[in-house]
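README: folding subset

This subset contains proteins for which both the sequence and a predicted structure token string are available. Records are stored as plain text. Below is the entry for SnoaL-like domain-containing protein (400 residues), shown exactly as it appears on disk.
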Amino acid sequence: MVKVEVGGKPVFEIPCIEGVNKTMKNGTRIRSTTTKSSSSKFSWSTSVSRLVVTSDTDDFDEDILAHFREEGFQIWYLPYDGDKAGYRKQLEHLSDPLELGEQYGIVAYGDAAAQVLESCMRPMPKLCAVVAYYPPHMPKTSANFPSSLNLTIHLAANQKFGTRHEKSYRYPGTKDGFAESDLEEYSKPDARVAWSRTIATLRTGFGMEPDLEGVVDWHNRLKWSGKEDDVEDLMKSVGKGAVLNHAPTMTGGIGKKDLKRFYSEFFAERNPPDLKTKLLSRTVGSDTVVDEMLVGFTHSVEMPWILPGIPPTGKRVEVVLVTVIGIRGGKVCAENVHWDQASVLVQVGLLDPKHVPSSFKATEEGKEKQVERLPVFGLEAARKVADESKGKSNELISEW
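--- output ---
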């Protein structure tokens, strides 16, 4: 039922569970068992993308809801209490408050996901995208989902049934619940990959095209400026709880407080004045930008992020950095940086490729004597990445 309040704003009255159940049992949320219903007014703002998040609990993972809001979605949470008929009726009327041209999407978890998939086998007006996390079963029909619907299904490894839908993904080693951080089954790496796919589906459905490259370019310009004065602005480019990790040296930090200290004291104005970066390639995903860049410098100052504790050597260093930058809500939420640290150590004289430690032993006795050098190169390795014609391939393979 749709009614119009004073001011002409459409309001949709739907039944909802009274009260919020936030109790936990052995680290697992207790499924909603409340049957008493009340009337709740549900209205959409017309200025943002509308998203219904639904699961079989009265409460839901607050981090997930917050992340959706950061991405610009107006969220309404719909609990599924096991009443299939009542729940299906709610789903059928979700579009009632919407005007011509307005759309909404659904992200569903567990038992609610199965019900949503059943419902959207037939076209649902104004529904542009559906993401289903670990539904316990798929619709029992030979029909296909509407071709106009952007749909993605995430399955846990313990869900053995298949799906004909091309955008369905199974996550090895997981159990249903792997995407929710307040459950024991939570798997952060798998949840992160699933989130990227979810965001891609929703953005396609709503026609959203955020400028991820612009965010990264702004962040990188401030990061590599070499000026401590730019750190304050740099902090505006990262989100709350952002993570920076230089993988080979495990330098960086978690959260704005740590990052501000790291960039202020151990990065800005701690790089050589001749340091230069050159972008070699860029891959843009739904919420991630991967840059491959050539970084060159003279090791004239101590550099805590790449050579912590090592005094200046005056050596020339060239290395390829791969930065994986996650973006949420228009800000950097995670940055993992990778490079060949062995190559850096060779270039500054801390690692001699011709020195094979006497402690090295092969599984077959005597084979270690055949090792003449370590399988590592210096700056030539980086130069070959920048230009494949610079250097020969397979020089370390004796049979080549």
